Amino acid sequence: MRNLGTTLKTVWRIASPYFRSEDKWAGLALLVIVIAIELGTVAIDVLLNQWRNRFYNALQEHNWNGFVSEIIYFSVVVAIFIVIAVYQLYLNQWLQIRWRNWMTKRYLGDWLNHANHYRMQLAGDVADNPDQRITDDIKLFVDRTLTIGLGLLNSVVTLVSFVVILWGLSAAAPLHIFGQQYNIPGYLVWGALIYAIVGTVLTHLIGKPLVGLDFRQQQYEADFRFNLVRVRENSEQIALLHGEDTERTRLMGKFALIIENWIGIMNRTKKITAFTASYAQATQIIPYILVAPAYFANKTQLGGMMQAASAFLSVQGALSFFVTAYRSLAEFQSIVMRLDGFEHSIAKANALDAGTDLVKLSPAGSDIALDDLLVRLPNGKPLVSADGFHFRNKARTLVTGPSGSGKSTLFRAIAGIWPFGTGKIAIPASATPMMLPQRPYFPIGTLRSAIAYPAEVGAFDAAEVAAAVAAVGLPALTPRLDEEDHWNRILSLGEQQRLGVARALLHRPDYLFLDEATASLDEPSEDALYRLIAEKLPATTVVSIGHRNTLDAFHQDKVVLESAGDRFAIHGVEEVANVGT
């Protein structure tokens, strides 16, 4: 019961925000209509239960007119049922897609908000495969919440409606055992209740392991799919290293986990199915066994026996909701656990951002200033420090140092996405910084939109984009600007780095940080790109990370990260050149 209470609280926490959102009126209206239709189906079941009494009595009494009248009545009721069932499905699906749309926007927003997706990885993200949680798990959560919720509502209302009928029929058809009549008030109700309790307890004991098995199955499936995507995205490196056999072995190892867990699900499902199928078949005959003695003792008519059997099945079905829906409930609980884990992981990333001791200031000055700064690794180990240091406005500064000295991490701290450390980072309030990493990111789409990223496609006209692409030495790509493709996969790293510079030329940032952003180019090409940046972006402050000595000629200041005991530190600035363009 503790697990049930916790699960219900979690379901409410995940589901309720939609019905308080900007789409709440449409969602609530659809939900009310769907619930009203569900109640209408129960009312129709009650009418059909009463009809069975009249119909079978007409058959027993050879009443032709009564028979025809009941056939017509049945046809009208069933026609109404078909119409409302169709619209219930239609409106249910409409509610599902609206609800899913809102949850998807919310989860995407929370995941992508202020680099949460990045901090979740830094914090040792427990929410594996966010793509699956935002796609499959949200879809299944909405579907299962409505399906199970409406099923439970149907069971409760059915129970209330038919208990009254069944109680009355218990008096009309008293219990007979070996020719003796026993007037037990509501004995049919008590029989249904005892039968349902026994079935529920046994079902839970048999099926409880399915929750963990379903959770792991979704995890293994997502991991296998993710690794397949990784192979596709790194196919060139795998081919160059002839790593196909190793990848096949590794992927089949991932798939073996799916098979092993699936066999566990199969074995447990076999047991639960054997029980629930036996339970369901026995349910069909039990009411007749209970009522038949009264019928053969002429205490009730055929119609009364059929009505009692139908009412018993309805009450027993309502009481046995847990038994019949156990497989879905187990799957639903695993979905809730995954979404709950995702939300907690997002909250952890938010807390990491809010709790950082790195303070980012927005002063009125023009320099980027680092005061009493100590950047740490996630495990708390000091990495790089700086105090009273300024990146001069409109100057070009080269940052060098040994591998692992924290150069890229320093850039991440300046960008505001690295939460580990203490101190102050001051960036002018109106400044527009841009970071160019060694491997640029290009979203799948047209080449023009990929270069314009993160701006919208229409932010730059085709001529501007074409000019920037030609300027960085890729005129052959200009005819392909409106061609859609996976550009990170089909372009060489050198071409990607050239297009990264083209992106900077379009955006014209106030501060441009180049993290070995030209390292894959030969020295003449790198020379040309740095001269292009100096020519096209004369008012931009450029800060570069690089190891080639040839880069000195294109920078006015040089910063070397040197070992300072347990960390690396910026000790000062060396003026290395005073070049113009």
Reconstruct the topology from this structure.
Elements: H1 2-15, H2 24-60, H3 64-112, H4 116-122, H5 130-172, E1 175-177, E2 180-182, H6 187-207, H7 210-233, H8 235-240, H9 244-296, H10 302-319, H11 321-324, H12 326-354, E3 357-361, E4 368-376, E5 382-386, E6 389-391, E7 396-400, H13 407-415, E8 421-426, E9 433-436, E10 445-446, H14 447-452, H15 462-471, E11 484-485, H16 487-490, H17 493-507, E12 511-515, H18 523-536, E13 541-545, E14 557-563, E15 568-575
Parallel strand pairs: 3-8, 5-15, 7-13, 7-14, 9-12, 12-13
Antiparallel strand pairs: 1-2, 4-5, 4-6, 4-8, 10-11, 14-15
Helix pairs in contact: 1-12, 2-3, 2-5, 2-10, 3-5, 4-12, 5-10, 5-12, 6-9, 6-10, 7-9, 7-12, 9-10, 15-17
Description of the structure:
The chain has 581 residues and is an alpha/beta fold. The chain folds into two domains: 103-354, ABC transporter transmembrane region fold (Up-down Bundle); 357-575, P-loop containing nucleotide triphosphate hydrolases (Rossmann fold). 62% of the residues lie in helices and 12% in strands. The protein has 18 helices and 15 strands. It has helices at residues 2-15, 24-60, 64-112, 116-122, 130-172, 187-207, 210-233, 235-240, 244-296, 302-319, 321-324, 326-354, 407-415, 447-452, 462-471, 487-490, 493-507, 523-536; strands spanning 175-177, 180-182, 357-361, 368-376, 382-386, 389-391, 396-400, 421-426, 433-436, 445-446, 484-485, 511-515, 541-545, 557-563, 568-575. The strands form three sheets. Strands 3, 4, 5, 6, 7, 8, 9, 12, 13, 14 and 15 form an eleven-stranded mixed sheet that branches. Strands 1-2 form a two-stranded antiparallel ribbon. The protein has a two-stranded antiparallel sheet with strand order 10-11. Strand 12, helix 18 (523-536) and strand 13 (541-545) form a beta-alpha-beta unit. Helix 2 (24-60) runs parallel beside helix 5 and helix 6 (187-207) runs antiparallel to helix 9 (244-296). The radius of gyration is 35 Å and the shape is elongated. The model is unreliable at 577-581 (pLDDT under 50).
